[in-house]
Design a protein that fits this description.
This protein is α+β, with helices and mostly antiparallel strands. It has 11 helices and 13 strands. Strands 1, 2, 3, 4, 5, 6, 7, 8, 9, 10, 11, 12 and 13 form a 13-stranded mixed β-sheet that branches. β2 and β3 form a beta hairpin. It is globular and about 70 Å long. InterPro entries: Acyl_CoA_acyltransferase, BioF2-like_GNAT_dom.
């Protein structure tokens, strides 16, 4: 993972005159609606730019539209870590009573069906302090909760390593309850070299044939945009295209509910305003055949949503679009791309050969009796004693 600029705290005096001391830390709970204040947004956006690990789904331009659409009652709270007046950590949390169909009260990070990562935003250098403050807060505010559920957290990064170290040193009972591998794009190869190594010669020949045949149907163009130019029209086209296929039939398309439609529109607008948006479309005579949304969060990128016209399935427009998406490999600011796809995805897993590990962990909170009850529960769920987070 590429290095980040350090999270600077404002000096109070020349270095030679200042005593050496750790910055004063404060973790507190806030109503998410308080963060719509312009001054809070400035702090939030600064943290997002310098976070030790990127997570677009917890940046202001995505999380606020999510909360407005899906949590109008304000049951989700924001845990904020403050250091010398600056924001050093952020995590949306919720007290939940349902644990994957079981009536087990717990605290958890808040994500939803269209948010594909639960890693908190933390300033560099504050990784361990964030976890220490978070679980101290959870101990004091456990209520009826038996544990804290950290869902869909990226593995192998500095925040994961800090969590492993903290849980071990604090002797907290903990267990990894779910681990999956997502397709990822992590390579120093050029797009052409990557395609050659990723797909067989027979498959590459078939793609060239499909592209040629599709070109014979009319004016075939590839459109790539990173700003907000004609964004409202582009967004409407994407929503229509996605709903025209199997997701529309399954009522899982973004356009099927007012909430997800509003979330998508507002998130794309916000991503464009924050310089996080990339849009790619393959068009035939101006009509979209395949469309894709990437969120660019250096040093990473996130392939957020894709849709294609199923009436042109014989030409594999979705695969042709992913061939165009390999241009991410040419960007010096992007070291890796998360597919945001389910494990064992039938298409992208055969195209992107690298993997990104995402896991969900349960961590014991509260006093000794509560932690003992958690150990029993974790053993039932994982069929083994909770030995920490690997």
């Amino acid at each position: 993972m590429a290095s980040h600029a350090p999270h600077q705290l404002p000096p109070e005096a020349p270095a030679a005159a200042r005593p050496v001391r750790a910055p004063a830390l404060r973790l507190y709970r806030a109503d998410w609606r308080q963060l719509e204040n312009p001054a809070e947004l400035v702090r939030w956006d600064a943290l997002s730019r310098y976070a030790v690990e990127p997570n677009p789904f917890f940046e202001s331009w995505y999380l606020l539209p999510s909360l407005r659409a899906l949590d109008p009652g304000g049951s989700v709270a924001m845990l904020l870590l403050e250091a010398e007046g600056q924001l050093a950590g952020l995590l949306p949390v919720q007290r939940a009573r349902d644990y994957y169909g079981h009536p087990i009260p717990h605290w958890r990070n808040w994500i939803h069906a269209n948010a594909f990562l639960g890693t908190p935003l933390v300033a560099p250098g504050f990784e361990r302090q964030f976890w220490q403050c978070l679980f101290h807060w959870a101990d004091e505010n456990a209520g009826t909760a038996l544990f804290f559920h950290m869902a869909q957290m990226a593995e192998k990064g500095p925040l994961h390593r800090a969590l492993v170290q903290y849980v071990d040193e604090a002797a907290r009972p903990a267990a990894t309850v779910l681990r999956e591998e997502r397709a990822a794009l992590i390579s120093d190869l050029s797009p052409e070299e990557y395609l050659e190594r990723s797909l067989s010669g027979k498959k590459r020949k078939e793609l060239r044939r499909q592209h040629r045949r599709l070109s014979e149907e009319g004016d075939l163009t590839v459109e790539r945009k990173t700003g907000g130019d004609a964004l409202a029209q582009w967004t409407a086209e994407f929503l229509d295209l996605e709903r025209s296929g199997w997701k529309g039939e399954a009522q899982s398309a973004l356009d099927c509910t007012d909430q997800t439609r509003a979330l998508f529109r507002n998130a794309l607008q916000g991503a464009a305003e924050h310089g996080r948006l990339e849009r790619i479309a393959i068009r035939l005579d101006g009509k979209p055949l395949a469309m894709l949304v990437n969120f660019l969060c250096p040093p990473g990128a996130f392939s957020y949503k894709t849709a294609f016209d199923e009436s042109f399935a014989r030409y594999s427009p979705g695969v042709l679009l992913q061939r165009e998406n390999l241009a991410l490999l040419t960007r010096s600011d992007i070291a890796w791309t998360d597919s945001c796809a389910a494990a064992d995805h039938p298409m992208i897993d055969h195209f992107w050969r690298e993997k990104r590990n995402v896991a969900s962990h349960n961590i014991g909170i509260g006093g000794s009796l509560r932690r003992m009850a958690f150990r029993v529960l974790a053993r039932i769920e994982t069929n083994t004693l909770p030995k920490g987070i690997a």
